[in-house]
Design brief:
The chain is mostly helical and 352 residues long. The chain has a domain of 88 residues: Tetratricopeptide repeat domain (Serine Threonine Protein Phosphatase 5, Tetratricopeptide repeat, Alpha Horseshoe). 70% of the residues lie in helices and 0% in strands. The protein contains 18 helices and no strands. It is elongated, with a radius of gyration of 26 Å.
Length: 352
C-alpha cells in the first residue's frame, strides 16, 4: 500500500467539514479543498465592483457593518482580494469583530496566505471562543501538510468545551490523534463523532486510521460499513476496496470491486478483484479478471504479471512465461516490471 496515497485518502475524510459546512466524502483521493463559509443569516447582494464613494453609513457602526457585508459578498463571488479590503475596513472600525476576523482569515486562506489566515482565525477565537467555524478552519490548517497535530488538538479540544458532542470537532480530533498514532484517543473521538452523526465519511476516516495503525480486523469492520453507506461514487468504492484486500476481507474486497467495475470497468479494478478472488481460492475467476484487465488496457503490466502467476498456480509454465514476458516489457523499471523479468529468468531455465 502506498503510504503517501493512503495519507491523502485519510485526509480527504478528515471532516474537511470546515467552517461548519458538512462536506460529504468526495472521492477520497484528495483532501477536501480549502476553507468553507459558516452559515450566515443573510448575505449582502452580490457585488461586482466597489460602491460609489460615500455610500457607507456615516456612523462608525454603520461603516463596520456595511464593510463586513460587502466583504462577505465578495467572498461569495470568489473575489478574495476585494473582500480583504472591505474586511480590513470593518476591523479598523470594530477591532473585536470575530466575524470580520473570521472572514478575513477565509479570504487570506483562499489567496494562499496561510500565516495571515492563521493569525485571523486566532483573533476571531480570541474575540469569540464559541465561533466553531474559526476553530475548525484553524485546526484544518494545522492538519494540512506538514501537519501540526498537537496544535490542532489544542484548538479542537477548546472548541469541544464550547460545543460538546459536535461531530465535526470529534472527527477532526480523531484524525489529529491518528496522526500521533494514539489509536485509543482517535478511536474515542471517532466513536463520539459516529454517535452524533453516523456517515460514510466518518466510517471511512475511522477505518483508514485503523488500517494505517495495522488494526486490520477493526479497520475492515468500519470500511465495510462505509462501503454499505456509500452511493455510486466509484472512486470512493475503489478506495475502500483497495484497503479491504490488504485487510484480508477478501469477500468484501470482491464485492467492492463488483460495484466499481459495474460503474467503471477499469483495468486496475479487474486486477484488484482478481487478486482477492485468488485469495478466496477462485483461480478461474481471478484469471478471468486478469484477462479482462488486459482487454481494457493491453499495456497494463500488473494484469500480465498476475495472469502469469495465475498460470503458474495452475502449472502452466509456457502460458505463465508468455504473460510474465509481457509484464516485463510493459512494466519498465517499475517494481512489477523488475519482478516479472526475474520470474521470466527463473522460468526460462525450468522450461528448457
Amino acid at each position: 500500500m502506498n503510504k503517501k496515497w493512503l495519507s491523502r485518502a485519510a485526509r480527504a475524510a478528515i471532516a474537511a467539514r470546515r467552517g461548519g459546512v458538512c462536506v460529504a466524502l468526495a472521492a477520497c483521493v484528495a483532501a477536501c479543498g480549502g476553507a468553507q463559509e459558516p452559515p450566515r443569516e443573510q448575505f449582502a447582494d452580490p457585488l461586482l465592483a466597489d460602491p460609489p464613494d460615500g455610500s457607507d453609513a456615516a456612523t462608525s457602526k454603520g461603516t463596520s457593518t456595511s464593510a463586513l457585508d460587502r466583504g462577505v459578498a465578495y467572498i461569495k463571488n470568489e473575489k478574495y482580494e476585494e473582500a480583504k479590503q472591505h474586511l480590513l475596513r470593518a476591523i479598523e472600525h470594530e477591532p473585536s469583530s470575530a466575524e470580520a476576523h473570521y472572514y478575513l482569515g477565509l479570504a487570506r486562506e483562499k489567496t494562499n496566505d496561510r500565516a495571515g489566515a492563521e493569525a485571523s482565525y486566532k483573533k476571531a477565537l480570541a474575540s469569540d471562543p464559541k465561533l466553531e467555524a474559526a476553530a475548525l478552519n484553524l485546526a484544518a490548517l494545522y492538519l494540512d501538510e506538514p501537519p501540526r497535530p498537537d496544535e490542532a488538538i489544542a484548538v479542537l479540544s477548546k472548541a469541544l468545551e464550547q460545543a460538546p458532542g459536535r461531530s465535526a470537532l470529534h472527527q477532526n480530533l480523531g484524525y489529529a490523534y491518528g496522526l500521533k498514532r494514539d489509536v485509543a484517543s482517535a478511536s474515542k473521538h471517532y466513536e463520539a463523532a459516529l454517535k452524533a452523526e453516523d456517515t460514510a465519511a466518518t466510517r471511512f476516516a475511522y477505518g483508514a486510521m485503523l488500517f494505517e495503525a495495522k488494526e486490520l480486523d477493526r479497520a475492515a469492520a468500519e470500511l465495510k460499513k462505509a462501503l454499505a453507506a456509500t452511493g455510486d461514487d466509484v472512486a470512493t468504492i475503489a478506495t475502500i476496496g483497495r484497503m479491504l484486500g490488504p485487510a484480508k476481507a477478501y469477500a468484501d474486497c470482491v464485492a467492492a470491486f463488483d460495484r466499481a467495475i459495474k460503474l467503471k470497468p477499469e483495468a486496475e479494478f479487474h486486477v484488484r478483484r482478481g487478486t482477492c478472488r485468488h485469495e478466496l481460492g477462485d483461480e478461474p475467476g481471478a484469471r478471468a479478471d486478469f484477462q479482462a484487465a488486459i482487454k481494457v488496457d493491453p499495456r497494463f503490466a500488473a494484469a500480465h504479471y498476475y495472469l502469469g502467476l495465475s498460470f503458474l498456480a495452475e502449472r502452466k509454465p509456457q502460458s505463465a512465461l508468455a504473460a510474465l514476458t509481457e509484464a516485463g516489457k510493459h512494466g519498465g523499471d517499475t517494481e512489477i516490471g523488475k519482478r516479472a523479468r526475474a520470474r521470466v529468468k527463473e522460468l526460462s531455465v525450468r522450461v528448457k
